[in-house]
Amino acid sequence: MAKEYIKYVDVTKCDGCRACMVACKNWNDLPAEPEEFQGSLQSHAKVTANTWNVLNFIEHENSKGDLEYLFRHSSCFHCTDAACEKVCPEDAISYTDFGSVVINNDKCVGCGYCVQNCPFDVISLATYKDKNGKEYRKAQKCTMCTDRLEEGMQPACVVTCHPGAMQFGNKEDMLTLAEKRLSEIKEKFPNANIYNPAGVGGTHTIYVLAEKPSVYGLPEKPKVPTSAVIWKDYAQPIGKLMLGATTMAVMAGFVSNKLFNKGGHDHGQDEEGGDSDE
């Protein structure tokens, strides 16, 4: 099994260049997606089915009363306990050995359950048309460049980050790096923290934030929706057991019926044979 990896993002080093956005678009061959003017420096309101990586610009008044810009690279968090994986009725979403959460395009039916249950709002449905012009939808999001990882490369966004705000590596090494960085910036940023929420089992995209998560538009304590837990961990297993029991009952009934009919048919033949002998 491959090692588990983490993408580590230090927002205090980000200079807002958007190179990560461009690299993501280029590598994944994602179409351009013009949007209405967002105001100030923001190019896209949020990640979408065709824009998997967005740089967020946040105007923030610091503790000294000064206005400053905060930047955050935004993409899928690749949760260890992913709600999207739990609620997918087609088993189209799965975990890789690298820790990334990926969508099987061939299995996805565009139901949107993953979109509705993602606590970070990073999955969207892309619309396509078949050869007859009929529209259909597929869920899409950041894959953490799993195809690159399989070839021994790093995610495109990490490679192109010139200020070194993003790094990628072994889980333990990245967590250690985050802790070290946090200790270095605590004096300058007293509210600094490591964002690796336990409510989703931890994530494979972790952040060193200069301010509280809510300042960056992140949920303070995200968790897998209770409905997703009930569906995946209780309803589905019980349903499969019931389906198995039902199937066995149907098969038993079928076999019994065949045996019963066979016995009756043979008995009838014996009677007919007896009559002919007489």
Structure, explained:
The chain has helices at 19-28, 83-87, 113-117, 146-149, 156-160, 171-185, 226-277; strands spanning 5-10, 54-61, 67-74, 93-95, 101-103, 124-129, 135-140, 166-170, 193-195, 205-209. Residues 262-278 have low confidence and may be disordered. A four-stranded mixed β-sheet has the order 8-1-10-9. A two-stranded antiparallel ribbon has the order 2-3. It has a two-stranded antiparallel ribbon with strand order 4-5. It is an alpha+beta fold. Helices cover 35% and strands 19% of the residues.
CATH architecture of the largest domain: 2-Layer Sandwich
Q: CA-to-CA gap between the ends?
A: 78 Å
Supply the number of helical segments: 7
- Percent range for helical residues? 25-40%
Low-pLDDT stretches are 262-278
Q: Which term fits the overall shape?
A: globular
Compute the CA-based radius of gyration. 27 Å
Number of domains: 2
For the largest sheet, list the strands in their spatial order: 8-1-10-9
Q: How much β-strand is present in the residues? A: 15-25%
Structural class by sheet pairing and helices = alpha+beta
Mean pLDDT: 85
- The ordered string of helix (H) and strand (E) elements is EHEEHEEHEEHHEHEEH
CATH class of the largest domain: Alpha Beta
Write down the oligomeric state.
single chain
Largest sheet: 4 strands, mixed
The tally of strands reads 10
Task: Using the coordinates shown, work out and report the CATH topology of the largest domain.
Answer: Alpha-Beta Plaits
